[in-house]
Amino acid sequence: QMKISSTESNFIGAAGNLGMYASGIPLGLLTDARGPRLTTFLGAITLGIGYYPIYLAYVKGPGSMAIIFLSFFAFLTGFGSCSAFSASIKTSASNFPDHRGTATAFPLAAFGLSAFFWSTEDDDALSDVALESPHPDVRGLAMLPKIEFWQLFLTMALLSGIGLMTINNIGNSFIQQRQVMHVSILSFGNFIGRLSSGIGSDLLVKKLNMSRFWCLFISAFVFTITQLAGSAISNPHQLAIVSGFTGIAYGFLFGVFPSLVAHTFGIGGLSQNWGVMTLAPVLSGNVFNLLYGSIYDRHSIVEPNGDRDCPDGLACYQAAYYTTFLSGVAGVVVCLWSILHERRIHGAMHKKVEHDRLA
């Protein structure tokens, strides 16, 4: 509709991602300090200010608004989403500290499902958190020396970039009319993944005495296999496989991540700590998006009516999927490292508790 190149489209998408993820720290600090009501209101206002000009530009057609302004308004939509998202996660985790995975799964799942529709603390609870967490109340920059921070940050960076590249570019290499269908499939998979991951992580911990990191391992494994499929698929009817499994993997990633952050660093500073973690997709998401756009534009041609078409088949995007495949493999390795590290930490903690009891 707007007759813009894949690189320009990804630049606008990168601005939206920047608003969504780079604003996580200040909005997290604001939520922790002032509560969720203010950030909910702020989110509603900035979403309206961001989306309405984009709607007007879409209606007026090509050339009606400069790319820089489209990017700015996309940034505002991301900022608004992050603001409301931060408020919902803080509210859920604080009200249900004994079932954080399940409690945060529902707003996370609703967030993941939204594209489907729009395309078509008490003392006992806090003491439990303190006993469960390796670092009971660590916030902001104090996380940086902790190895657990870098495990979580690396996992988020390696895996979220894969998901964001697919989400922002789904359908670019095929018939544009199919995009709505694929966005819906991806969104529904995202919803299922978030709900399953959040609830499943609670079951893993409480019933099976296993680590929540296994949900991240599932995400990394599915992402990795899906990238191989994406690099080989040229039939547009088979693209639904990539859309669906990318949505599920992305959902598993974000469905369990807030509860992992709360488990590792405590619930007191959850919003700001989550904000720090959301810097990871800013880095990897923008790199992968711009890489995809550059590869696609290098193989595409501009038709007389202004539309872009890529006649080179798999070469239009295959190199991008090979890159994200390597990112997925690295994500699997980091997840296994995190599981082994957590097992050692918790083993040492339990031995200390047992020793203190006997003493």
From TrEMBL:
One of its GO terms (cellular component) is fungal-type vacuole membrane. One of its GO terms (molecular function) is transmembrane transporter activity. It is found in: Membrane. The chain crosses the membrane at residues 12-31, 38-58, 64-89, 101-119, 149-171, 213-233, 239-262, 274-295, 319-340. Coiled coil: none annotated. Keywords: Membrane, Transmembrane, Transmembrane helix. It is a multi-pass membrane protein. This is Nodulin-like domain-containing protein. It comes from Aspergillus niger (strain ATCC 1015 / CBS 113.46 / FGSC A1144 / LSHB Ac4 / NCTC 3858a / NRRL 328 / USDA 3528.7).
